[in-house]
Amino acid sequence: MSEIKLIIEDKYVRSFLEFLKTLNYVSVGEVIPPRAQPDNGKGKKNKLPSDDPAMKAARPLRSGVKVEDLIREQGYQGTNWSRVEQLANDMAIEEPVEGLLAQLTP
Fold first, then answer.
1. pLDDT 10s per residue in the chain (106 long)?
2. Is the separation of the CB atoms in 42 and 36 below 8 Å?
3. Least C-beta-crowded within 10 Å: which of 27, 32, 46, 75?
4. Residue 64 Rama label (left phi>0; alpha psi -120 to 50; beta)
5. CB contact at 8 A, 83 and 91
6. By the 8 A CB rule, do 24 and 17 touch?
7. Measured distance CA(45)–CA(11) in Å, rounded
8. Any idea what DSSP says for residue 35?
9. 39 DSSP β-pair partners
């Protein structure tokens, strides 16, 4: 399991935590209030080095950008639900969903 530490502005924390609750593969271990966040001894919050690979993945959103523009730029293709349904039908799983989910948890 990996651990990720994020610094989020106060006004976004509640919404972000609500979003994380919707993800079944994420657990929130601890939320530290802003005044208790560690710094690097220079009065600045800890930041990733500019050459860190995570900096390439986490880029700030341009101001005024529309979701439609991002979808077009990134070549996003939504989930083909009819294909997913067809795959599920092709697998012909006869066990109830509850039984399958029970097998996933230790």
1. 677 888 887 778 788 888 888 887 778 777 777 664 455 555 555 566 677 666 666 666 678 888 888 889 888 888 999 998 899 889 988 888 888 888 887 6
2. no
3. 75
4. left
5. no
6. no
7. 18
8. G
9. 45
